[in-house]
Amino acid sequence: LTTDAETRGAIKGSHPIWGGYSPFTYPNWATKFFVDALLLARGWM
After folding, report:
1. More confidently predicted of 41 and 1
2. d(C-alpha 37, C-alpha 43), whole Å
3. Distances in whole angstroms, Cα of residue 9 to Cα of each of 2, 12, 29, 45
4. C-alpha angle 13/15/20, rounded to 5°?
5. 39 Cβ partners below 8 Å, 6+ apart?
């Protein structure tokens, strides 16, 4: 959890944050793909 309002709720570009893919970033498309995966799992897509 974070108290930083700019990163609260954001999804990291890599795990760990310093990993090889999009390190130290919170790409906007990560949230889109996460929501798509949730919708697909529910059968709503």
Report:
1. 41
2. 10
3. 9, 10, 13, 23
4. 70
5. 45
Is residue 39 classed as helix, strand or coil in its secondary structure?
Answer: helix
Could you tell me if 28 and 10 are in contact, meaning their C-beta atoms sit under 8 angstroms apart? Answer: no
Whether 2 has a pLDDT exceeding 80, the answer reads no
> Is the whole-model pTM more than 0.70?
no
Q: Return the pLDDT at 32.
A: 93
Give the Cα separation of 15 and 25 in Å (integer): 11
The answer, yes or no, to whether residue 7 has pLDDT greater than 90, is: no
